[in-house]
Structures are given as C-alpha cells and as structure tokens.
Amino acid sequence: MKINAHTGLLEPVHYLASSHCDVRPEHTVIDMIVVHNISLPPGEFGTGAVEKFFCGTLDFSLHEYYASIAHLRVSSHLFISREGKITQFVPFHKRAWHAGESAFAGRTNCNDFSIGIELEGTDHLPYEKKQYTILTEVIQLLTKQYPAITRDRIVGHSDIAPQRKTDPGPAFDWPHLDCLLER
Ligand SMILES: [Zn+2]
Q: How far apart are CA 71 and CA 77, in angstroms?
C-alpha cells in the first residue's frame, strides 16, 4: 500500500468519491490525524450504510435511527471495516467533514488541518486486531507523507470535541496502537 502524492489517494484501496468535502484553507499544513468510530445502524457492521452516508446516498427511511442523522453532511478520508478493508472517500489534500466543531491546542476547526479515519465500531466493543494492523500501516504511511503529524497529534474525536463526542471510545486501545507504531 502507498500514498499517491499526486491524487492524494491510498493505492490500492477502494475509492468512493464523496462530494462531502472542500478545499483546505490556503497554505494549510496537514498535521493531525483524528480517529473516530461509526457504525450504521449503531452496533451493526457490514451494512454498507456508512459508505452511503458519507457519499450522501443513504436512504434515511430504512431505519428509525437514520432520522437523527438525516440532516448531516459528513465524510471522512478513510473508513476501516471490521475486516480491515479500507475505503477512501476524500483525497488527503482535500478537507473532509469529520470533526465538526472542534479545537486542538488552541486551534479550532480541526477539519482544516487533519485527516479523519473512521473505524467501524462502537465506543464499547473491542476493535478487531485487523483494524489495528491496518490503522497502524495507514498511520505510518501518512506520517511519512505528512511529517508534521507527530504522535501527540494523533488523537481521538473525543479529544478535540469533548463536550459533544465520545468516539473512538474506551474500547480503543491507545497503548496497543503505540506499541504497534513503535515496532
Ligand atoms: Zn467522530
């Protein structure tokens, strides 16, 4: 796997282009990774709904939960399924809409300067070994491509929007990720 610096895409990875993105502010240095979780409906995996949600094609009448998210236009750069399969929605040089109202180290609007990675999951169910393996590989590629992403700038959504967000949740094993990154 590698990052194509020209297209901003991981290769070879399934690319589903989302219109839920725009350009980053001029001269932005990409210097942060935000780890999230999502599953649609919550706690159900492999439904294909997340991919549709991020692309704006989810039929919100299919599940009662969807009414609560029908107004949202969001995306992430990457989604890692329970099986460790990656889908990319937004090229890295573009701004994906994953963080919402957020702040880190005194800077607001973290979408401007971050890369969003969604893990298929919930706050309380342990993530799959495969997901950690793939996430580690992706982080290693991204930190090589964007060296301003130092370890202290790889954070959870709950770290940058603590009033609103809890993901990736207590189930996410940060020490384990550190261990894999240091190998
Ligand atoms: Zn999140």
A: 20
